[in-house]
Amino acid sequence: MTLDPRRRDIDEWFYPRVRKSQKQATRGPREIPSEARTLTIHDNPSIMSRAASQQPSTPLENRSSYERDDLEEERNGFEIAAAALGQPGSNDGVRFYTGEQTGFTSTLDACSSETTLPRHLLLPSRPREYLAEEDREYLRIKGVFTLPGNDACSELLRCYISHVHPVMPIIEIDQVLDYYHSGRLREYNTLLLWSVFFAAVNFVPQSIYEKEGYKSRKEMKSALYSRAKCMYNNGGEREKIILLQSSLLLGFWHSELDEHMQPWYWTGIAITLCQVLGLHRNPDGSRYNSSVTDRQRMLWRRLWWSCFFRDRWLGLTFGRPFRINIQDCDTPWPLVSDLMYDVEATPEVLYAAFVPSEMPRLARYWVTLVELSKLLGDCIVMNYQIQRPKPSVEDVEALEQRLLQCELPDQYEKGLTRLATFYCCHVHLHYQALLITFYRPFSAEIPHIVPSNNQEDWCLRMRRKTDAAASQTNAILETLAQNKLLGFAGPMTPPLLVPAMQTHLYLCRSADPLSQTFRLNKIDTLMLVMEELQKTYTAASVYRGIFMKAIQQIFPNYRPSALLSTHTASPDRTSTGLPGSDNPEPVAGHVGQDTDQGMETSFNDDFVDALMDQASLFNLWEYWNGV
Predict the structure, then answer these.
(1) Exposure string over 435-472, b if 16+ CB within 10 A, otherwise e
(2) Which residues form the Xylanolytic transcriptional activator regulatory domain (predicted)?
(3) In sequence order, which ranges of 212-335 are alpha helices (DSSP H)?
(4) Which of 28, 179, 292, 531 has its CA 20 to 30 A from that of 351?
(5) Position 36 pLDDT exceeds 50
């Protein structure tokens, strides 16, 4: 493999010379993996005294490897106990979460004068083990140690901070910018850096990926994902926060090779790491935890609520059960200040070059998205869980009132920049998808205690509210297209169109030809938007293919409208109005069918019912396999 000489090789900076521990060199039949950490009882004086009384007089080095293993494993228990009892061996170390009342450290509660011992502990750190030479060579061959060129790195960081960070604020941007500004980007965590670059490549201009030798943005995205995943699986990363951050970012990957379930897979890993670290619990729940800094508290909240946000919306998209039970969590609700501490710590010169001036406003939008995610979870629990009681009218009206009381940003606020306008609309797209998810089941299902003479009116009102939310989705997307803002759309945008498209298709079953035409035109508008988004996002292509098949079940002669401008169909992001485009072209399209194209209607109620029965679009696949 020949590497581009313009790129910077970070191999020499990444892993120092390989180092084998004495323990590995003299190991008997029981081998320890290369990433395991070598410990001795002498590393922590506070533990050594407690362990010494239980040790035979035989020197440690004279014992068998099995005895040494047992002592070192036992020593780890001493460290956990000492930290829980407030006797840490150092002021620095790794985070450890003991678990709830049933956890193994609850044994110590009975021995402590404190009412409740802290659950978030600081354990002594372990010596770092370096990769073996053959592992490092494998990573080198895969290109992991070769960064993109300077221009590409700069643009990727700028795109990440402007377009990914506002909806996934999971890294501390002042730190990565400091590494970049001081010429030490190669010393930043390699796994996290590739993950950041992968998430940001959706927004880079055409000139960047072409300069790096790629024919398309999708090709560059695939290459960067491959390097990040290779580093994740083979780089020996042990820091759980880094693994968590990387998992969330890799959750933006879609591939037909795994039935497009990678977002679900990677987000599941991130949620597991959150719970392993105890980020779902308030570190100050029982008493103030002095081992946790304020900066760590804010980052932990950002990480946890980012996982929560993804869990709820991916559960809706894929029709999967939630992994997070909100009743198990007491992490404080996120604040705007949680998202601003690293922004405010960024030097002015870097802030001006990389951070959008709208960041405080975007931080408020993100807090609103988390609030909407909480309501989405409540809606799905009420309407879509397999084992659920039938809600009462009071239950439905109470949840509806909470939905209607949401404080959303003003789409028509004076002075909104293009970036702020997009993210304001992005919040409203989430809200309309939430309303559809809530109202749609009640267009056919009737809660308890609705009088029989009022049931038809109940369903009609709910159907109209569903229709209104779907139509509002169309209006928002038309605004984005007409103002050339679709270029700001991220990987979370295509799924937000699906609830509206499902609703329009469901209402196409009306016997009124005029209503059918209106609905079909609305679907066609969203199909045009999907066509624009599929140039960057594989998920949009999948959704468009599914709905093409679904529409043809009702209208066998249906053909989607095409964009009028061939230039608009160019995959170059400058055509959709990203900052820096010189001549942005509008997104134009024809939303109706040709009058001389006969539109025969052929209802397949079973197919449309399969489309509407669940929150997930992907349930259609199961139906197709059975017909």
Answers:
(1) bbbbbbbbbeebbeebeeeeeeebbeebbebbbebbbb
(2) 263-340
(3) 217-234, 240-250, 262-277, 294-318
(4) 292
(5) no
